[in-house]
Write a structure and sequence with these properties.
The chain is α/β, with parallel strands linked by helices. The protein has 10 helices and 12 strands. It has a 5-stranded mixed barrel. A two-stranded antiparallel sheet has the order 8-9. A hairpin with a 5-residue loop joins β8 and β9.
Length: 353
């Protein structure tokens, strides 16, 4: 059923202590994707005058959730937002940091999901721009960030098994968003109109021009045949071909791969393939994704990081995939919460910053 403006205001109001999960986004489009995944949205609650954050309230899988969007990107903004959230909602047990990130090819591709998980000597997230500078300009990592809480790792392991047996429900959740919030389609729910530069062969300018001209000529031919032979001669066949191709592309676009492993977090944007690959080498080739918020909260807020891959952290970095990547990350977060039993969350200690 399509959500209307009137329906959004028919909501219940809970109390601050009812909320046990904090969900942090860095960008408004990430918050939009997260909000679209809620089973139910709740009425707003008052916050202290010294807390400028604006929260969205709702539930997924029996969990009451507080959503917040950072005022700007970076680890400092994330740390401040997490601290304010935990002071205001003192029953929060766990956090989810959900949004977009840059992938490390060829291990991941655009539109995939990366989830932080301990690997080798690393606890799932590393702060790549924190360390000491040694002779020769080499940076050596110092310290470490906390592991995700056991309850979230257990839920993630169960979800892995579900994916192996039944496949991910992410495509279904995207379809649900299309039906409930048609204004978000296709930007948030489909990738068939998007191009992955690593999967499409590079063509010369001349080749691209020739393809465009052939497409124009084909459409012109269809119009002339229709004119001389009568309406309906070619269009049924032409439309069936288009629909079949669109259907195949649509199915292909909804295939989402989920990866588990190491995520690097830092305060600087990486837009260089050599720097990206050198960073991966620094961490033993375990790196799957780079982002800019998680390191600010991992040591004080028990949480897991979920990133939809929107670029390859190289010179071709752009915003084309951001909405779709935000949506698949939010859909995975929904899946994870549905594997996490509310009673398991309720017995945990509240998070403190």
């Amino acid at each position: 059923m399509t959500a209307t403006k009137d329906q959004r205001y028919i909501r219940k109001r809970l109390h601050h202590e009812a909320y046990t999960i904090g969900w942090i986004c860095a960008l408004p489009k990430e918050l939009t994707a997260a909000r679209a995944m809620l089973d139910e949205e709740h009425k707003s609650l008052p916050t202290p005058h010294n807390n400028p954050s604006i929260y969205i309230f709702g539930s997924i899988g029996g969990h009451n959730i507080v959503l917040v969007c950072l005022p700007n990107t970076g680890t400092t903004a994330a740390a401040i937002a997490a601290a304010s959230m935990l002071l205001t909602f003192q029953s929060i047990k766990f956090g989810l940091i959900v949004g977009i990130g840059g992938g490390i090819p060829p291990k991941v591709k655009l539109g995939d999901v990366v989830v932080s998980q301990p690997v080798s000597q690393y606890n799932g997230v590393v702060q790549w721009d924190m360390g000491k500078l040694e002779d020769g300009g080499r940076t050596v990592q110092t310290g470490s960030l906390n592991r995700p809480p056991k309850a979230l790792l257990d839920a993630m392991d169960k979800l892995k098994g579900d994916h192996d047996t039944y496949g991910t429900r992410i495509p279904q959740y995207l379809l649900d968003v299309e039906k409930k919030y048609p204004r978000l389609a296709p930007r948030y729910t489909r990738s068939d109109s998007l191009t992955d530069p690593r999967l499409v062969p590079r063509s010369s300018f001349f080749s691209r021009v020739m393809i465009s001209l052939l497409y124009i000529l084909w459409n012109t031919l269809v119009v002339f045949v229709e004119y001389f032979l009568g309406s309906g001669t070619l269009f049924p066949v032409y439309n069936r071909i288009r629909q079949t191709r669109a259907g195949a592309e649509g199915q292909k676009s909804r295939h989402v791969q989920v990866h588990h492993g190491l995520i690097a977090s830092g305060n600087r944007v990486i837009k260089d393939a050599k720097a990206r690959d050198a960073l991966d080498k620094t961490f033993g080739g375990h790196l799957l994704c780079v982002e800019m918020e998680a390191a600010g909260v991992m040591n004080n807020f028990p949480c897991i990081v979920i990133r939809g891959i929107c670029d390859y952290a190289d010179s071709e970095k752009n915003k084309d995939w951001q909405e779709y990547a935000a949506a698949v990350a939010a859909a995975y977060a929904k899946e994870l919460l549905e594997c996490l039993q509310p009673n398991v969350v309720n017995i945990q200690n509240s998070a403190t910053f």
